[in-house]
Design brief:
Extracellular solute-binding protein, 18 helices, four-stranded mixed β-sheet, 17 strands, five-stranded mixed β-sheet, alpha/beta, D-Maltodextrin-Binding Protein, domain 2, signal
Length: 505
């Protein structure tokens, strides 16, 4: 990916130079060969407060965990933390405002950093990680580190524990048992359960999917994993299949599995199974007791969902059903779903990378992810932990430290869910997708993407969610979006072809 213009490049270079000079003006302590502060380094390091942007709300118990983090940091990196939590609904806009106005953040969570990389807003990290980040590298597979580079440079630390983008159906176990329905073993079982809920428990919505992402092309792919049908993320109507290096659009090349999925979703909506306001409702309704079935990323039922549901609905219980199976040999691009980046404007780049490295040390990661040992959680075997139910802590490692080597699995999950989690964290279980290592530069078609995003919200997401009848909805979507989809497809294919050709040299 290239920076968009010479002026942007000059701006980026000047910002980088300013940050470097600022870093030089406050001399850093010498580091040992491991990249950690030497024994006497803590006393020499000037005190620094790192300003960090995170999505969502602070977890319960955050102030106590933050205090313990700063207590440990005082004896090593001499760092205090100014963590700014931005509500999910506002994080995209406020992140862009902060970056464009050169607000003094040192670390920023980003789930789609490529436009900000193209604009020269994030610092290249390779040399900083080589010097200060041995644990950043050692706790991530080579595939993950290499596949998330742009033009052979790493601009943001990939935060990921999975080599696929897993998701699962989460079900009200207590309702299933009350209605006399056997444990869910197939997608057909799940559909029958939702219809039973509609008939026999009319006071609860049978199904509230968490937006269109789970139940669109991802669902279609799981009925035939060998087809490798994958959405081209962020570009509605484009997809890849068969690992053949080609990009398809749903207007000229509608795969039958995709159309079948759209029709099934529409039937669920028309029959009153899917919530009437599915476009706006999300899986946050499930722990409030509003739905019998929803979808979540990850396998199993996370601790926060279980706890919230049990508090909201006495006697309620949740269980998970997944279409994934460890016998599958799925393709992976090894792309991360979350990143932590250092803005070029930061005056504390070295310390920011040292801090991320500190988070990638086992005891510190445990604190970040699970809270205070003995109070919030306890050991439960290799790679496992047991939350202390009365005082559990739902951390936010996905936003600043996630990695598959240190992340633990909740031992209270069922054996099959633990098995799925272990399977998805081992890169050897997946085949390399032909798109592995390829990063699309959206800048040549930025106007078309902006227009497509509008059509996506207005028409394509309602088609996927079943709100619109598929044939009629697709005709309207094509009328509004076809020209933009074709231009984006052509540019994407052009860049992909060039990337594949360069690998053959």
């Amino acid at each position: 990916m290239k920076l968009r213009s010479k002026s942007t490049l000059l701006l980026a270079m000047s910002l980088i130079l300013a940050g470097t000079l600022a870093g030089c003006s406050s001399k850093q302590a010498e580091l040992s060969e491991t990249g950690k502060p030497a024994a006497s380094a803590a006393a020499k390091l000037n005190p620094v407060t790192l300003k960090i942007m995170f999505p969502g709300d602070p977890p319960a118990g955050w102030s106590e965990v933050k205090a313990e983090m700063e207590n440990r940091l005082a004896g090593s990196l001499n760092v205090k933390l100014n963590v700014v939590f931005i509500p999910w609904a506002d994080v995209l806009q406020k992140r862009q405002v902060a970056l464009s106005s050169a607000e003094d953040y040192d670390l920023i969570w980003d789930n789609n950093p490529y436009q900000n990389i193209a604009a020269g807003l994030y610092e290249p990290l390779d040399s900083l990680i080589d010097k200060y980040g041995p644990e950043i590298k050692s706790n991530r597979s080579p595939q993950l580190m290499e596949s998330n580079k742009v033009n052979s440079k790493l601009y943001a630390v990939p935060l990921e524990v999975n080599f696929i983008r897993p998701w699962t159906f989460v079900i009200r176990k207590d309702i299933r048992e009350k209605l006399g329905v056997a444990p869910i073993k197939s997608y057909d079982d799940l559909i029958k359960f939702m219809y039973t809920v509609k008939e026999k428990a009319p006071d609860i919505t049978p199904y509230i999917p968490n937006g269109a992402e789970h139940i669109g092309l991802r669902l279609a792919n799981l009925f035939d994993a060998n087809a490798n049908i994958q959405p081209v993320v962020n570009y509605a109507g484009l997809y890849t299949k068969g690992n053949d290096g080609k990009v398809y659009n749903i207007f000229d090349n509608m795969d039958p599995a995709i159309m079948k999925n759209f029709e099934q979703n529409h039937k669920l909506y028309k029959d009153g199974i899917t919530a009437k306001d599915a476009i706006t409702l999300k899986n946050a309704e499930f722990p409030k007791g509003k739905a019998a079935v929803t979808t979540f990323f990850d396998f199993g039922v996370n601790l926060n969902t279980r706890s919230s549901l049990e508090k909201a609905v006495p006697g309620a219980a949740a269980e998970a059903f997944s279409l994934y199976d460890p016998s599958m040999k799925l393709f992976s691009t090894f792309k991360a779903g979350n990143f932590i980046a250092v803005p070029v404007i930061s005056k504390n780049k070295e310390r920011a990378v040292q801090f991320i490295n500190w988070l990638n040390q086992k005891d510190n990661y445990d604190l970040l992810a699970y809270g205070i040992k003995g109070k919030n959680w306890e050991e439960s075997g290799e790679g496992l932990y047991k939350p202390i139910k009365e005082n559990s802590y739902s951390g936010i490692p996905f936003a600043w430290g996630w990695n598959s080597k240190l992340d633990r699995i909740d031992a209270s999950l069922s054996e099959d869910v633990i098995k799925l989690n272990k399977w998805q964290r081992d890169s050897a279980n997946f085949k390399a997708d032909i798109l592995a290592g390829f990063t699309f530069d959206p800048s040549p078609v930025s106007n078309e993407i902006a227009q497509l995003n509008i059509a996506n919200k207005e028409l394509f997401e309602p088609i996927i969610l079943g709100v619109l009848e598929p044939k009629d909805g697709l005709a309207k979507f094509k009328d509004k979006a076809y020209a933009n989809v074709k231009k984006i497809q052509a540019e994407y294919q052009k860049q992909l072809d060039a990337s594949l050709a360069s690998k053959k040299k």
